[in-house]
Design a protein that fits this description.
Length: 101
């Protein structure tokens, strides 16, 4: 899939180094996000509307915990309603691992 580059004078104040890629469905989104977490050099900032406990979230929590162990600042913003399926033990794993929720 090709990245889309925006000009700096468009709707948002983009810098020429910034780019984004539209990822359709979890089969594209999850591997790309996990790869980005692994490649982070200083910060991981994630905002999620829907987050439910399960196999996929376990992979994300493991990756985020590993990032904090590498000295990366990890901040996770979750929607109250959309993350009601995230069990307390998973929330605790993230906080105990050093992530800010």
């Amino acid at each position: 899939m090709e990245s889309i580059h925006l000009k700096s004078d468009e709707t948002f104040p983009w810098h020429k180094e910034q780019r984004f890629r539209l990822l359709i469905d979890g089969s594209q989104f999850f591997p790309a996000m996990l790869q980005a977490i692994e490649a982070a050099k200083s910060h991981v900032l994630i905002e999620m509307y829907i987050m439910e406990s399960g196999q996929v979230v376990d992979q994300f929590i493991d990756a985020l915990v590993q990032a904090t162990k590498r000295g990366i600042t990890v901040q996770v913003l979750l929607d109250d309603y959309g993350s009601r399926g995230l069990v307390i033990s998973d929330r605790n794993r993230m906080q105990d691992g050093g992530e800010e929720l």
